[in-house]
Design a protein that fits this description.
The complex is a heterodimer of chains A (346) and B (243).
Chain A (H helix, E strand, L loop, with lengths): L2 H32 L6 H16 L6 H19 L6 H26 L5 H24 L7 H23 L13 E4 L2 E4 H23 L1 H11 L1 H6 L4 H23 L10 H14 L5 H21 L4 H7 L1 H11 L9
Antiparallel strand pairs in A: 1-2
Helix pairs in contact in A: 1-7, 1-8, 1-10, 1-11, 1-12, 2-5, 2-6, 2-10, 2-11, 3-4, 3-5, 4-5, 5-10, 7-8, 7-10, 8-10, 11-12, 12-13
Chain B lengths: L4 E10 L2 E11 L4 E6 L5 H9 L5 E6 L2 E2 L5 H7 L1 E4 L11 H8 L5 H14 L1 H5 L10 H14 L4 E5 L7 H16 L3 E6 L2 H7 L2 E6 L2 E7 H6 L1 H17 L1
Parallel strand pairs in B: 3-8, 3-9, 6-7, 7-8
Antiparallel strand pairs in B: 1-2, 1-4, 4-5, 9-10
Helix pairs in contact in B: 3-6, 4-6
The chains are: A mainly alpha (346), B alpha/beta (243).
GO molecular function (chain B): ATP binding
Protein name (chain B): ABC transporter ATP-binding protein
InterPro entries (chain B): AAA+_ATPase, ABC_transporter-like_ATP-bd, ABC_transporter-like_CS, BCAA_Transport_ATP-bd_LivF, P-loop_NTPase
Chain lengths: 346, 243
Amino acid sequence: MNTTIMLFLVQDGITNGAIYALLGLALVLVFAVTRVILIPQGEFVTYGALTYASLAAGQMPGTAKLALALGIGAFGFDLFVARKALHARLIVRSLITNVVLPAIVLALTLYFAAQKPPVAVCIALSLVIVAMIGLYLYRIAFQPLAHTSVLVLLIASVGVHLALQGLGLLFFGAEGQRGPTVLSGAFTAGALRFTGQSITVYAITIAFIVGLWLFFGLTLYGKALRATAVNRLGARLAGIRTTLSGQIAFLLASVIGALSGILIVPITTLYYDSGFLIGLKGFVAAIIGGLVSYPLTAVAALVVGIVEAFSSFYASNYKEVIVFMLLIPVLLLRSLAAPAVEEEKD
Amino acid sequence: MSALLSVTDAHVAYGKVEAVRSVSLEVGANEIVTIVGANGAGKTTLLSAIMGILPLKGRVAFAGQDLARLDIEDRVAMGLGLVPEHRELFVTMNVEDNLELGAFRIERSRAKASMERVYTLFPRLKERRKQLAGTLSGGEQQMLAMGRALMGEPKLLMLDEPSLGLAPIIVADIFRIVTELRAAGVSVLLVEQNAQAALKIADQAYVMELGEFVLSGKASDIAANERVAASYLGFQHEGESVI
C-alpha cells in the first residue's frame, strides 16, 4: 500500500469523522435527555446545508417559512395546554419566542435572499432558521409525548424524519446543491494538502466539543441537562423542568446538525435526502458509544469516518455496507457484556 | 388555623387498585408530622401524590393555594420539597453539583449562602464535596438527598423513610437534623417505618394501615397508645435487631 494514498484516506476519514462526531454527540445528548432517538438529525444537516446554499445563490429558502409555520403551531400548543389558566405573561412570552421571532427571521431572509448576502450572513441565518425548526419540532412532536415509551418516541421520530424529508424535496427540489466554502485557500504539508474548508471542519468540531464540555461542566443549565439525563425524577424534584432540558437539547442538536451541513456542503453535493445516511453514520458512532458516552462516541465517529474512507477507495460499491457492518461486532460485544436490558425508569 | 399543608379526602390509585383511601392530614408551620405504618400501607404513595408525581383525587392545598393544576416543578418553586425513598441523586455528578442543582430555582446569590448552611448541617458533605454522589455511603447519600432538597429553600420538607437501611448512629444523626430543621423554620412531614424514633421527635402523628389513617393525634399520645405499641413499636424493636 502506498503511504501517500493511506495518508490521504486517513485525512479524508478524519474530516468526515469529525462531522460524524458532531452528529453522534448530538444524538447522544438528545437521547440522554429526552429518550428520543433523533432520526431527523440528518434533516437538520440537509436543511442547514441547503438553506445556506440557497441563500448564497440568492434564492429564498422555504425553511424560513416552515420555521414560522411550526412556530405558529407551537404557539397553538402552548395556548391549548394552558387554556384553563391563561395569563398575559405566558401568552406574550410564547408569542415572542414562537411567532414574532420566526417572523423577524423570515423578513430578514426575504430581505437578504434578494441580494446574494455575504457568507457570514448566510451561515447565521441558516443556523437560526434550523435552530428554530428544531425547537418548535420538539414542542409539537415530542414534548406532548415526553412521558411515553422509547418506542413511541422512536415512531414519532421516524414520522418527523419522513415529513421533513418530503418538505425538503418541496423546498429544495430534487437537484443537489453545493455551497460556497467558508474558508478558501489551501496549503500543503509534505504529501498532504489541507484545504481551508477541511481546516474549518477540524477547528469548528474541536471548538464545539470543547464548548459543549465547558457548557456541561461549568454552567448551571449544562449541569441541569446532565442531571435530567442521569435522573429525570431527581431533576424534577430539584425544580428542573424536563421540557426546558428537552428544548435545550433539541436546540443544540439542530444547531449542530445545521452547522455540520454548512461545513460539508462546500465539499460534497447534498440532496434533499442525503441527510439520512449522514445522520445514520453519526448514529453508528453513537451506538458504539452505547448512546451514553460522549468520548467513546467521538472516537467511534473518527473510526467510522476512516473506515468509510478506506472502503470507498478499495470497495466503493460496498462502502455503506462496510460502515454499517461495524455495528454488528459492537452490538454482539455489548449484548454479551450486558445480558440484561435495564428497565426504563420514570 | 390555616395549615401550611392540608390534604382533604385524598384517594390515590394505581389503575383499579386504590393504594390510598380517603386520607386527610394537616401540617402546620414549624411542625414535625409523622406518618407511621407497616411496609405497603401506602405512605410512599401518599407522599408521591402530594408532590405531584402520582395523580391524586381530592384536595391538596399548600400555603393556602390549591395544587391541583401545578406540576412537580411548580410545587418545588412554591416551597414544597420531597426527599424520596430512593433518593434519586445525580449519581455521576459530584456532591457540590448535586447541591447546586437543588437550588436551580433559587437566585444564584442566595444559593451560595444556602450551600454554606447545608454544609454546616452536614459537615460530612463538605469533606466530600468533590466526590461523585454514586460513590458515597448510604448515610452520606441520604444526607446529600436532604441537602439537595434544602437547597431549594423549602417551607415543608417531606422525608420518605430517611432511616431505611442506615446504621443506628447515622439514623440518630438524621433525626437530630430533622429537629434542627424545625428550629430553623422548616416544617417536616416524615414517613417512617421506624415508628419509635419518628414518634419521639414528631409533634403530630398519623398511623396508616392498608391505605387509610386509623389513628391520629399528638405524637406523644400515639406513642402511648397500646395498639400502636403492640403493632408497631414492639414489632419495630424486633425488626431493628434483625437488621
